[in-house]
Amino acid sequence: MRYQLDELLAQISNSLILMSSACEESLTNAFDAFKAHDKEKALSIYNKDYDIHAKAREIEALCVKAMMRQQPVAKDMLIISATLKLASDVERIGTQAIAIAEIITNFDFSHQGDDILLVEKMSNEAITMVKNCIVSFIKKDSELASSVIKRDTVVDKYFFMVKNALVQAIKKSNDDAEFSLDLLMIAKYLERIGDHACNVAKCTQYVLTGKLKDQE
Q: Are 21 and 89 in contact (CB under 8 A)?
């Protein structure tokens, strides 16, 4: 029976890697499209929404199967429960990446300014967080998980900088209101992605310590 559980856990891990890679790819490609003003590429990302949700349901089903049929020991249960929490956050990262892609399909790229540069810098930080939080879980790397959590303050700082810049822009000209709202929504999604990446990093710490810190 043990070898069957090990095979199932390996399958869960592989499915998680595939799902995480898909979410990371969606987020990275969305901002490649943003920087290149490529609305067609953004649309192709938006159309992949179903794949992410299907992968999440597959992982949930595998975890339930492992819990119900394979008699996991305490350590196995720790990994399975952490994976369930992680899969939920990764799915939300993917959903928010898709939402960003949707905004880009109708984004007004005629506007240029420091607020767009801030969002691009914010996206770089968020993408790095997503990459590192997944690696931290797969490799059970506590230091990398801690670095992800610390990095969230940088993403939050960028969000408030973007928000303040856009509020000032709206005060000066109502003509920019729709553009400002779109850019603010992108920044807000990035801020939430940072929170979910932190939750994934906390799942790594949970597996290593058995203690689950407060999640966003």
A: no
Kindly report the CA angle at 49 between 46 and 55, in degrees rounded to 5? 150
142, 119 contact by CB (below 8 A):
no
Q: Where are the alpha helices (DSSP H) in the chain?
A: 2-36, 39-46, 49-69, 74-104, 114-139, 142-172, 177-209
Taking residue 196's Cβ as centre, other Cβ atoms within 10 Å add up to: 26
What is the rounded average pLDDT for all residues in the chain? Answer: 89
Specify the CATH number of the domain 2-209: 1.20.58.220
> pTM for this structure?
0.90
How is residue 198 written in tokens? Answer: 């932190």
Nearest Cα to 137, choosing from 211, 58, 199? Answer: 199
Closest CA to 58 of 66, 68, 46, 70: 66
- State the chain's maximal CA–CA distance in angstroms: 68
- Tokens read off for 160: 């408030």
Best CA proximity match to 16, nearest among 72, 55, 48:
55
Q: Which residues, other chains included, contact 153 with Cβ-Cβ below 8 Å and sequence gap of 6+?
A: none
By CB atoms closer than 10 A (0-12, 13-18, 19+), residue 80 is buried
The token pair that represents 17 in the structure block: 């890697």
10 Cα distance to chain centroid: 22
> pLDDT digits over 130-178, tens only?
999 999 998 999 999 999 999 999 999 999 999 998 888 777 766 677 8
